Amino acid sequence: MITLSMKDLIAEHGVVGAGGAGFPTAVKLAARAETVIVNAAECEPLLHKDKELLIHHWTEIRRGLETALDRTGAKRAVIGIKEKHEKLIQRLAKQLPANTSICRLADAYPSGDEFILVYDVTGQVIPPGGLPIHLGVIVSNVETLYNVGCERPVTHKYLTVAGAVREPLTLRVPVGTPFSSVVQAAGGSTVPDFRVLVGGAMMGRLAQTLDEPVTKTTGGLIVLPASHPLIVRYALGWREVERKAKAACDQCSFCTELCPRYLLGHPIEPHKAMRSVGFGGHETRFRHGQLDENRPTPVSEGLYCCECNLCSLFSCPEDLDPKNVCVFNKSRMKREASQAGNGACRAHPLINARRVPITRLTRKLGLSSFADKAPLSATSLAPARVVIPLRQHIGRACVPAVTVNQSVREGQILAAPPDGALGANLHASIAGTVKSVSEEQIVLES
Ligand code: SF4
Ligand code: SF4
Q: In angstroms, what CA-CA distances link 175 with 18, 182, 392, 405, 431?
């Protein structure tokens, strides 16, 4: 039975969603829910972190799940996991908490998207602009539940290192470890000139430097030759995206026909977002920074885009970038977003037939030649220096609670959100001395 102090500990320990934007878990679990869904879909190509955690740390994950059930009052839990992991499913099935079942998911992308996962598990569609809790559902990632179940401060992060490395693996590293050390732990790159995608091939971002630190939400590093087509795509600037959209979009609408959110019945049609670029549609509504009320509201132009990147990296036969056009439009549609309706949607009758198999996606991304396995390393990294960013996830930046030259022990609070603000505590990930404190980060050395 969970106690009030146990509830407080989730916040005290700085647990945030480890698989996405990092929403504070104590806040999420404060809601009353009917169902807790464990998101074990892990649909980014080459990433294996959640599966490895389920294999090696089920005890902690199970304890975290029981806490989530108790905390939210949910009557049932469902683990959403790819059907291809049948051996693991059989193992888990023998050790499930009460009222917990397993939902076998197709090996398709993006089955880990919350909206798709909730649809696959419950058969219901979260309304556009809505949240799982609108259907009485809480979705929690595997590593998040692991962190809840560990009942200690979040000082370390699990992540997969894959792609052009000698020994792809999943490993545990202190938060703040530089990417360079993580790549080195995987045997280093197999090519001299390489770049790193942070978070995955589909929804990641290009690392600017190998000095960047691992944060509480870094799920994986994909190392690729600098000349790899994916790296070239991620390096394109907005002006080039816009130029190509105007020059080459033939309005075939493949991007829309395979868009997972369109297939859920949401009002989104990326080909129309592309049309808006070519014909000055939505963009002109914001000319000079002003919304032109006389032009129609193009809700289909990207407002409900989940940024899965399927349209840009798989669907478009012209290698255009409707995802970034949707993102560009979305940022300009915040006013409409605040007025987003919560109308019921019906999924497209062909939603199941149009799922994109991971094998085809991996081939299209040019990743088939890399090893698709990343076993969990038995050892943790122990860097002599870590950099802890004060803004690592959703919510306000943390306020430092330590000063330069102060000695700290592993797990000691380094910084906390401002009073009453959404956020999560940050802890020392190694024992050592505070070397510097700024508005952006705290540096520790052992
Ligand atoms: S798939 Fe490509 S070419 Fe076709 S409408 Fe979409 S962006 Fe244009
Ligand atoms: S990134 Fe493209 S495919 Fe994905 S939700 Fe947005 S518009 Fe749809």
A: 12, 11, 10, 20, 12
